[in-house]
Structures are given as structure tokens and as C-alpha cells.
Amino acid sequence: RGEVGRAVSVFRFAAEEARRFNGGEAQRLDTDLGGQGRLALTRRFPKGVVLGIAPFNFPLNLCAHKIAPAIAAGVPIILKPAPATPLSGLIIGDLLAETELPAGSWSILPVANDRMPALVQDERLPVISFTGSEKVGYAIMDSVPRKHCTLELGGNGAAVVLADWASDEDLDWAATRIATFSNYQGGQSCISVQR
Predict the structure, then answer these.
(1) Phi/psi zone of residue 106: left (φ > 0), alpha (ψ -120 to 50 degrees), beta?
(2) 117-143, pLDDT tens digit by residue?
(3) 108 is in which domain, residue-wise?
(4) Is 16 tagged catalytic?
(5) Is 63 marked active-site?
(6) Which is catalytic among the residues 3, 149, 152, 169?
(7) Beta-sheet pairing, 127-132 with 148-153
(8) pTM for the whole structure
């Protein structure tokens, strides 16, 4: 239920961002004397179809993290859910099929990991969005040096106990929280305590 609620929120956040974006942003340039009385107009241009590769550990929410922003930006996306948890991505696809989104704006493509190099290197997919391990993420980026890669890789979350603790109960509470969140989701969470 928590993951479903979060996935719904991700779609809401993306929809709100799509409502806010008006096609261009004016920025003042008067920080320097040469920019006095001048404005810059920033416009966004899609780079092309996104290949979104989602991990297994939060399959519904992390598939939503790939699909919702692409739809909000009007960019076609091919979602590749993790082989161990493809049903969440397919369910999102079923829900999207009930909408009035244009044909070809999204696809769900369950593919075995050993078949991914050909898909990653396909020239028709100029943008790759990957969430997962550092090893795989960097291998993807190194294999396609001319593509735009967005990588959300494993974390290295530290726990810090500050010197202003007041009692042994404070330290016990901190130790309990650190132990709990270092083992949260069996350690398969990028925001778990890792050191």
C-alpha cells in the first residue's frame, strides 16, 4: 500500500510539473554590467525516446519514476522493468492503456538482462534512464558515450551520531534506528544506512 501511494504521488508530481511548464522561462541577466536590461529565454527540447530501466526493489514506484516524468514532458518512453518483477511495470502499462495518451507514447518491454546491451546501444534510443547498481550503471554509460544517460545508482548513506546526545537512551535509540534502517528491505534500498 505504501508503494502504491508513492507511485500515485509520483504521477501527481509529474502532472503538476507539466501544468507549470509554459514552454519557456525568462531569466534576468543583470548580474553583470554587460547584462543590464537583458533577458534570456530558456526553452526545453526533447532529445528523443527514453529507455527507462527500473530495478526490482521497489518495482511499482521506480517504474512510475521512469514513466511519469517522460509522459509529463511529452517524451516517448520504453520501460524495461526488472526481470524479477515485471508485473508492476505491466500493470502500469494496463492502466495507461485506459487513458487517451497517444499511441507510441509509452511501451512496456520485459527483457532479460543479458539481452539489454543491444537495446542500450540501439541508435533509435538516444536517452537512457537507469536506476540500479553502480557497476551496471557505469557499464551502460561507458558502452554508449554519445548518448544522454541519467543514472540513479546505489547509495552510500552514512549515519552520524552528533556529539550533543544527552543520555544513554539517546545512544540506544540511535543504535536501534541505525540497525533497523541498515537492514530495511533486506538492505535492498538505495536510502538504507550503509555505513
Answers:
(1) beta
(2) 999 999 999 999 999 988 999 999 999
(3) 2-11+45-153
(4) no
(5) no
(6) 152
(7) parallel
(8) 0.78
Beta bridge partners of 130: 53, 151
Catalytic one among 17, 63, 100, 190?
190
Residue in 132, 125, 98, 123 with CA at minimum distance from that of residue 109? 125
In a domain, 112, yes or no: yes
Give the type of residue at 12: R
Radius of gyration of the chain (CA): 21
In this structure, the answer to whether residues 124 and 171 fall within a common structural domain is: no
CATH value at residue 87:
3.40.605.10
Regions of the chain with pLDDT less than 70: 21-24, 185-188, 190
What the block records as the C-alpha cell of 170 is 539517546
The answer to whether residue 31 sits within a structural domain is no
Please tell me the predicted confidence (pLDDT) of residue 117. Answer: 95
Contact 52, 64 (CB under 8 A): no
Q: Where are the alpha helices (DSSP H) in 38-185?
A: 59-73, 86-97, 116-120, 134-143, 168-182
Whether residue 112 sits in one domain with residue 187: no
Q: What stretches of the chain show up as alpha helix (H) in DSSP? A: 2-20, 59-73, 86-97, 116-120, 134-143, 168-182
Domain count, the chain: 2
* Beta strands 25-28 and 39-42, pairing class: antiparallel
The reply to whether 95 and 161 lie within a common domain is: no
Q: 177 and 107 in one domain?
A: no
